[in-house]
């Protein structure tokens, strides 16, 4: 059975992919940027798979080479700034080094169990980037948002490997993102809190009064000049 599906890349361009299952084996491939061209390529590709011997999936593609190819493709095809490109680079390198420590040097050696154990490790990793963490000796674990972003990067890396036909499926396919807890309602000052603040405001009384009755941010209020007022 052959089907088409689409993805939108970083340049807001629609890309058509093909998905074919033959004798229980699944094949996926990037086809074209237009539906008409993709349908033609899908038919040609399906015919080739049905009536010719399929080429075996490369079993010894090095993880290091795959990572470099992914980063090169990312650099050429996306508009990521240096900051976010470095996040992709650090995240994939961290996972690659973890795989090497567990004697997995090729893509085919990266199992779902290895991917899941790495994800669990990151879920419990403590960060040292918290402000003045060295002073209070407290290093919190990585936030769910950070861990989920890393997971999306690694899933994207293995989607690229699948599109390049280096692997048949992603080892991260069954790894689910962490559910974020609700932050709850916003905190607000009570009438007694406001009275205490205003009574203690001193020379900042007028400044606090402006914030209270306009809702303007303190940074914006600080930049106000006489010419900004009318009347």
Automatic annotation (TrEMBL):
KW S-adenosyl-L-methionine (keyword) present: no
Pfam family, one: Phage_int_SAM_5
Core-binding (CB) domain sequence ranges: 61-162
UniProt keyword terms in alphabetical order: DNA-binding
GO molecular function: DNA binding
Keyword DNA-binding part of the UniProt annotation: yes
Name of the protein: Core-binding (CB) domain-containing protein
């Amino acid at each position: 059975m052959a089907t088409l599906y689409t993805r939108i890349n970083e340049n807001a361009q629609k890309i058509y992919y093909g998905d074919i299952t033959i004798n229980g084996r699944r094949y996926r491939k990037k086809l074209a940027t237009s539906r008409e061209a993709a349908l033609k390529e899908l038919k040609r590709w399906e015919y080739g798979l049905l009536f010719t011997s399929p080429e075996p999936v490369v079993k010894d593609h090095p993880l290091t080479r795959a990572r470099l190819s992914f980063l090169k493709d990312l650099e050429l095809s996306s508009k990521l700034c240096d900051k976010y490109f470095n996040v992709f680079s650090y995240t994939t390198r961290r996972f690659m080094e973890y795989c090497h420590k567990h004697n997995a040097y090729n893509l085919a050696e990266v199992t779902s169990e290895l991917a899941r154990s790495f994800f669990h490790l990151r879920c419990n990793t403590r960060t040292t980037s918290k402000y003045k963490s060295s002073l209070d000796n407290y290093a919190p674990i990585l936030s769910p948002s950070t861990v989920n972003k890393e997971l999306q990067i690694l899933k994207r890396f293995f989607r690229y490997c699948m599109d390049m036909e280096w692997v048949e499926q992603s080892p991260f396919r069954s790894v689910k993102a962490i559910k974020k807890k609700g932050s709850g309602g916003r905190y607000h000052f009570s009438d007694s809190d406001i009275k205490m603040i205003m009574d203690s405001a001193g020379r900042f009384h007028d400044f606090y009064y402006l914030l209270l009755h306009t809702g303007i941010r303190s940074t914006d209020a600080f930049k106000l000049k006489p010419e900004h007022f009318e009347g």
